Amino acid sequence: MGRTIKRLIEKTGQFFSLRIRSKKEELDRLKHIFNMLDEGIILIDDNQFIIYCNPIALGFIGLESFNGPIALTDFKDKTLSNLFIEVIQSKKDCDWNEVKFFNRYYKVDLRIHFEEKLLVFFDITDERKYQNYKTELIGNLSHELRTPLSMIMGYAETLSSEKEMPVETSRRFINKILEHSIHINGIIRDVLELQKIDFIGDQFEVDFPVIVKNIIKDIQVRFSGESEKELLFNVDVEELYLLYDHFFSILTNLIENAIKYSKGKKIHISIYKQDRNITIQVEDEGPLIPNAEKTRIFERFYTVSKSRNIYKSGTGLGLPIVKHITQLYHGKIDLSEGKFHGNLFKVSLIEKI
């Protein structure tokens, strides 16, 4: 009997050992899955301690590592602390559609299973920024289109009602309608350009290089007859691994900006490369953009002529387009005074190979 009981105890111990080992393997597999998720996962026990936190959740809640149970009441950030207080008080599943802490926005779901609570964090910062961008873009676009459309309607109504209008006056009104129509067309063109850039995003590949001399020819054709300013190119590279549309857009918008806002007769364009680092420079001959304007010229729909209405106004989207494309190539754009005492825009890019 004693031996039988001893064997039974041994078998029972082996059984529980297998159960524990199996549970640990399942837990390890579960942790491996959680570690691969883009969502933050936090598991809370019945004593309101965090007993598991996957790596991405560590970053969300401001921790460098997880070395054991952490009390929910230990967090200093006020918004995060208030969220955990709500979690402690919650007796059923619930959701928080938008919570902000550490300058990012999250959707948080709480699921309760027996005495344990599972928190899932979804980072919605980029979605929120995009929604804000769309709202701001629509608002700005409506504002920018309202004035030229009102002018076109006013001139058109006057032309329609004044049958005996002098020829010179009617011609002037028609020219004004054409001028405002061109401005509206430019705004729509640039908005579509921004939309195309946003749609492609940074998930693109460059399968073959752009031949620089070919794009220079296209640029010269593009500006032929548009301005009396001379375009001077200084190029020491034959090909670049950029998308044609991106390269053309950078050059076109920087040159257009120089044509509209500079009084000099020449625009100097330099393109060169060292290793994978590309530099594109466009310099005019002045006058200089005021220091107060330099921090704002890359804002969408902002134009220097809004504060100094002495030059032909642009759409206010050219330089933001250049900045946006530059960021796709992990680069930057700088503005400084050039050797011709004008504005020097320097774009630095990294080839996409």
Task: Considering the chains and any ligands shown, give keywords for the structure.
5-stranded mixed sheet; 22% strand; 13 strands; Helix Hairpins; single chain; Heat Shock Protein 90; Beta-Lactamase; alpha+beta
Task: Summarize the structure in words.
This protein folds into 3 domains: 105 residues, Beta-Lactamase (2-Layer Sandwich), CATH 3.30.450.20; 75 residues, Signal transduction histidine kinase, dimerisation/phosphotransfer (DHp) domain (Helix Hairpins, Orthogonal Bundle), CATH 1.10.287; 151 residues, Heat Shock Protein 90, CATH 3.30.565.10. Strand 12 and strand 13 form a beta hairpin. The protein is elongated. Strands 3-2-1-6-5-4 form a 6-stranded antiparallel sheet, sandwiched between helices. Strands 8-10-11-13-12 form a 5-stranded mixed sheet, covered by helices on one side. It is α+β, with helices and mostly antiparallel strands. It contains 9 helices and 13 strands. The N terminus is likely disordered.
Specify the structural class. alpha+beta
CATH class of the largest domain: Alpha Beta
Widest sheet: strand ordering: 3-2-1-6-5-4
User: How many angstroms separate the termini?
Assistant: 78 Å
Query: Mind telling me which CATH architecture of the largest domain this is?
Result: 2-Layer Sandwich
Give the H and E element order. Answer: HEEHEHEEEHHEHEEHEEHHEE
Beta-sheet strand percentage? 15-25%
Specify Rg, calculated over alpha carbons. Answer: 31 Å
Helix content: 40-55%
Low-confidence residue ranges: 1-20, 306-312
CA-based shape: elongated
How many discrete domains?
3
Mean pLDDT: 81
